[in-house]
From TrEMBL:
Compositionally skewed regions (Basic and acidic residues) per UniProt: 272-281
InterPro entries noted in UniProt: ASD1_cat, GH, Glyco_hydro_b
Any GO BP annotation: polysaccharide catabolic process
UniProtKB keywords: Signal
Residues annotated as domain Alpha-L-arabinofuranosidase 1 catalytic: 241-310
Keyword Hydrolase appears in the UniProt entry: no
This protein's name: Alpha-L-arabinofuranosidase
Coiled coil: none
Annotated region (Disordered), positions in chain: 263-285
Gene3D superfamilies in alphabetical order: Galactose-binding domain-like, Glycosidases, Golgi alpha-mannosidase II
Length: 699
């Protein structure tokens, strides 16, 4: 999506910049209120001949109205207009953009501005969007100031979709002074922790993962030894994983469970997806995943094949697990994966009406064999540029037509930063976008709960839980992108901690499965190492800091004051105006031990946080476990395998020290020590991009 925007900007630049080669010759922004009109077109805005074929453009009662047609499919030249602005007067300031915009009947309204440098390359980019049904005034401010090399701004307005109406008005572009550094006093963060308070009991299934059946379960099956890999078992158990989603993501909607039972030698080798060439032997099937779950003290979430399978096949799988492995091992059954996506890779994309009908049929078939099974339906509430649900009415239709038969609504709303950015010099900005994203994830979870309750019967309101069945740090799926392999960094671990805090705080979230446990490529939280074998990434180490959370009581923790940071709109992440630099969560176990986990999103400076305890003991023995590295881009030297014919990006230079290239197995440390405790206040010195888990035990 962002890549299309960036190509659109280049096209608009070609259209609107002829004759403006000298600095300062681009015009000033004009007619953002669309009051000046000639032949129903707004004066000062350029429309290409190609874009003009994608729909109609008119000014109606002082508003720009774009009506896309069937030719307005995703492309570099959607129905849209643009103009150029001289940016020299805004150098050193942060871009601001505001507009009133709305979408209706399938159209999405988009307003954006990009800053081009003297070479015509996009340096900064901000965007506003309004989905069908949205009508609102929006404002955004870029997190970083424009550099001295910025020459021109390209402002554009456009419509997405092949029908409906996008309405835009009152577009304004400007600058805001760059953020000033905080003083020492402003750098402190103050919390109040109610040690004897009582929040919800933290669900065990929040510490979940995904295991795919393909490629020997991405290493879970040790082919050389003919058994489950002992190191992956040990690392998974140490991290405290409690729920395993299987057979993993998109492959679920092409999976036939019958291929994964019986003797290994008798099992077939099949294509992952019917029309693709890659194949795998079914070495990881039902008995192996049950064995793995049992060994690490976990249960299973089964995702059934709703894309190409039948309710009868799912029911037979449920009966097989019940009769062979017992009732308790697989309590949750999810109906399909991401079937709401356009052109889902499984080939199983469908309308919400078809899915709702399938959901009811699969639920009835599974519960005929497992009456107490918890059934999960799928959906996603799009937000900002994070728009992977192709149907704006999917959630409402599915919940209205089948909400009465589900216990869980499964979403994939917490991947970040999902960038198209390819400049390693902007790595800090990319990481800030990721570390601020838990703010928008939390809001989306709240919006999802509200939508569920607005769409189901009164008897079901408040009773359908939310499961985030895929989530985690994810930068780029393009191996040529220099951020492709950054899932393994310390900064990614920081995102893990801050996102887990969001899940724990949200009373409707009862399950979360990170994606994914291990991988030969870039997404595994356990990664391959040179010479063979596997190693935990910092992401899994961070998850392990929460291993005592399941079953504990969440404690009220009030952040009274403290510094925040802003992030830019990058990739599929919206801009965030204020995310806390220091974030924390606390819980108490049955024996009274308090665990507090705090993290510092400042990529360069340590931060001090002070926690005043109320209602607790007079004194505590304090133990601190501090996780950090020399840089947010440092890692533990896990690798991805080379794939013949696939070009991988050379590692870029990410900041001073070049720690992404220099990292070793010992670059990320987990050190045990103590912390400041005096007069009922706990004081933590948090390292840059660091996480600290502190336990307080009353003597």
């Amino acid at each position: 999506m962002l890549a299309r925007f960036l190509r659109l900007i280049v096209i608009l630049a070609v259209l609107v910049l002829p004759g403006c080669a000298d600095e300062g010759q681009a015009g000033t922004f004009a007619n953002g209120d669309f009051e000046t009109v000639e032949n129903d077109r707004p004066v000062g805005w350029s429309l290409s001949d190609v874009a003009a074929t994608k729909g109609t453009v008119a000014v109606v009662k002082g508003e720009l109205v774009l009506r896309p047609n069937e030719l307005n499919t995703p492309s570099d030249t959607p129905l849209g207009l643009g103009q150029a602005i001289d940016a020299t007067s805004l150098r050193g300031q942060r871009l601001t953009l505001s507009a009133r915009l709305s979408g209706a009947d399938g159209a999405v309204a988009v307003v954006g501005v990009a800053a081009l440098d003297t070479a015509g390359q996009v340096e900064r980019f901000v965007v506003l969007r309004a989905a069908p049904g949205d009508e609102q005034n929006q404002t955004t401010t870029d997190a970083e100031p424009l550099s001295e090399s910025v020459k021109t701004l390209i402002v554009f307005v456009s419509a997405e979709g092949t029908k409906g109406t996008a309405t835009i008005d009152d577009v304004a572009v400007g600058g805001m002074a760059a953020t000033q550094p905080t003083t020492p006093d402003e750098a402190l963060t103050f919390f109040t922790l109610q040690a004897d308070g009582k929040g919800r009991t933290i669900p065990a299934d929040i510490l979940g993962t995904n295991v795919e059946w393909i490629r020997d379960g991405n290493g879970l099956w040790n082919k050389a030894q003919g058994q489950l890999d002992a190191d992956i078992i040990a690392m998974s158990a140490q991290a405290g994983i409690r729920m395993i989603r299987f057979p993993g993501g998109v492959w679920s909607d092409t999976y036939d469970w019958r291929d994964g039972i019986g003797p290994q030698s008798a099992r077939p080798t099949t294509r992952h997806i019917p029309d693709q060439d890659e194949t795998s032997h079914h070495s990881i099937g039902t008995p192996e995943i049950v064995d793995f779950a049992t060994r690490i003290g976990a249960q299973l979430m089964i995702t059934v094949n709703a894309g190409h399978g039948t309710p009868e096949q799912a029911a037979a799988w449920a009966a097989h697990i019940r009769d062979t492995h017992g009732l308790a091992i697989a309590p949750v059954w999810e109906i399909g994966n991401e079937l709401y996506m356009e052109n889902d890779m499984s080939g199983g994309s469908m309308t919400p009406e078809v899915y709702a009908e399938k959901l009811r049929a699969f639920e009835a078939a599974i519960r005929a064999e497992l009456p107490d099974a918890r059934i999960a339906g799928i959906g996603l509430v799009n937000y900002g540029p994070y728009r992977f649900n192709a149907h704006d009415d999917w959630n409402r239709i599915v919940l209205e037509q089948a909400g009465d038969v589900i216990d869980v609504f499964a979403v994939h709303n917490a991947y970040a930063p999902l960038v198209v950015e390819s400049s390693s010099r902007r790595w800090a900005e990319v990481y800030r976008a990721m570390l601020a994203s838990p703010v928008t994830i939390a809001q989306n979870l709240s919006d999802t709960a509200a939508l569920i309750d607005a769409s189901v019967s009164p008897a079901k309101r408040g009773k359908i839980a939310i499961a985030v069945t895929e989530w985690g740090p994810s930068y780029s799926y393009d191996p040529k992108n220099p951020y492709f392999d950054h899932v393994k960094t310390m900064g990614s671990a920081l995102f893990v901690a801050r996102t887990l805090n969001v899940f724990m705080r949200d009373a409707r979230v009862d399950s979360a499965q990170f994606f994914k446990l291990s991988d030969w490529l870039n997404m595994g939280w356990i990664g391959p190492v040179k010479g063979g074998g596997w190693r935990e990434t910092p992401a899994l180490m961070a998850l392990g800091l929460y291993r005592d959370a399941p079953g504990a009581t969440l404690l009220p923790l009030d952040r009274r004051e403290g510094p925040t940071f802003a992030s830019s709109h990058l990739g599929f992440q919206p801009a965030v105006e204020a995310a806390p630099l220091v974030d924390a969560v606390a819980f108490r176990d049955a024996a009274g031990k308090i665990t507090l986990i705090a993290s510092n999103a400042d990529l360069e400076q340590p931060r001090e946080a002070r926690f005043t305890l109320s209602g607790g003991a007079a004194d505590y023995k304090v133990t601190a476990h501090s996780m950090s590295g020399p840089s947010a881009v440092a890692h533990r030297d896990t690798i991805h395998i080379d794939v013949p014919g696939v070009p991988f990006a050379a590692p870029g230079q990410f900041g001073n020290g070049d720690w992404f290239a220099r990292a070793s197995a010992d670059s990320i440390t987990l050190e045990t020590g103590t912390a400041g405790w005096a007069d009922g206040t706990l004081t933590l010195q948090l390292p840059p991009a660091g996480i600290m888990a502190v336990t307080l035990v009353s003597p």
